[in-house]
Amino acid sequence: MTTNPPDLRPDLAPRAKIGDTPRPGQPTIGMVSLGCPKALVDSERILTRLRAEGYGISPDYKGADAVIVNTCGFLDSAKAESLDAIGEALSENGRVIVTGCLGAEPEYITGAHPKVLAVTGPHQYEQVLDAVHGAVPPAPDPFVDLLPASGVSLTPRHYSYLKISEGCNHRCKFCIIPDMRGRLVSRPAHAVVREAERLVEAGVKELLVISQDTSAYGADRKHDTERGIRTHIDDLARELGGLGAWVRLHYVYPYPRVRQLIPMMAEGLILPYLDIPFQHAHPETLKRMARPAAGIRTLDEIAAWRDICPDITLRSTFIVGYPGETEEEFQTLLDWLDEAQLDRVGCFQYENVAGARSADLPDHVAEDVKQDRWDRFMAKAQAISEAKLAQKVGQRIEVIVDEVDAEAATCRTKGDAPEIDGNLFIDEGFEALSPGDIVTVEVDEAGEYDLWGRLV
């Protein structure tokens, strides 16, 4: 039985789950995957390629001939976490290849850990493979090393991340993602749909659509049509919605055109769930952030979404303590949250990031003030969550089972993303359930972030 409390790092991906058993004599590679779900997809692609070349995947350091550490470089705290992970891998194994976002700063890594075998940047798959080949030559057995059609997955079998694009065209002052991952590059829609079809055929019950800016999908391709499918988030969502799996949208910027997606949620074609990064509510703070949607009346948009789809669940993340944030601006954010009544909320305290333009802004906020504002913000968000969940007691809802242990079945509603949002627990009559089952429950208890229910 697991819970998902709010975290200072709401961008974190679920824990990687590796269950491969190498054959005797097979060269093996370990993987440490840090950061967001987009990095987790990169890890899956690297391991799928390695598995196809005959490598085994080791679940621990000591059983591996080398270890790949896929790093995060989004915040200074994430960089420190990545350096710690590299150090641990070096200590436990000694043969370490570094990739991922922090790999865009190789001198930063080698300055702290000069013994790493190689450093590559984000989504540089060929360079990672070359480094692995140099450290641990492949020894494939074509009669034994068969790769499943669905590839190597680091998530449970019943859900999977579906990355639809790389990079970002925005220049938010607190973010260095465009510098690390480049400008927007959208995958052809037919390729995304084919991957989704293979996942569903392999038993995936939930597709989690991810990118850096899901709303902008296809803009770099001028929304071209290839093999009968237009490269546009509206068309892609409708295609995915026809596959019979839950479809959950993440990282959707709050442009007015998002309103076109909401009728599909009301129809039940895609989940009534939007993960939408508002970041703040005060217009001056948003301008200092250089947010692309700074001038949009977000409360009006939220009202319009709820008018079309009353059951919609809205999740967002915010930054408190941004340079120049006054008490008045922060209070505007609290008042906005009161009115918006968002269902799921995560929050960062602002951190300087090397290379981000926000570090050069005046009037940085003191650390104790940031902490105080984070505490006040999360207290309000928690109270809203508790009140909204209490309204669900007595309702009958569909849930997907994530885990079954001796205590309970840990499930999620349509309004909960895995390991980010809350859970629904079934603690009676759950023994016959299995991960991936979709069942109907009646909610009989609510907490601050989680629900309890019984099968009906």
Automatic annotation (TrEMBL):
Annotated keywords: 4Fe-4S, Cytoplasm, Iron, Iron-sulfur, Metal-binding, Ribonucleoprotein, Ribosomal protein, S-adenosyl-L-methionine, Transferase
GO cellular component: ribosome
Record EC number: 2.8.4.4
Region of interest (Disordered), ranges: 1-29
A GO term, aspect molecular function: protein methylthiotransferase activity
Cofactor comment text: Binds 2 [4Fe-4S] clusters. One cluster is coordinated with 3 cysteines and an exchangeable S-adenosyl-L-methionine.
Cited function: Catalyzes the methylthiolation of an aspartic acid residue of ribosomal protein uS12.
Family: Belongs to the methylthiotransferase family. RimO subfamily.
Name the record gives this protein: Ribosomal protein uS12 methylthiotransferase RimO
UniProt source species: Arenibacterium halophilum
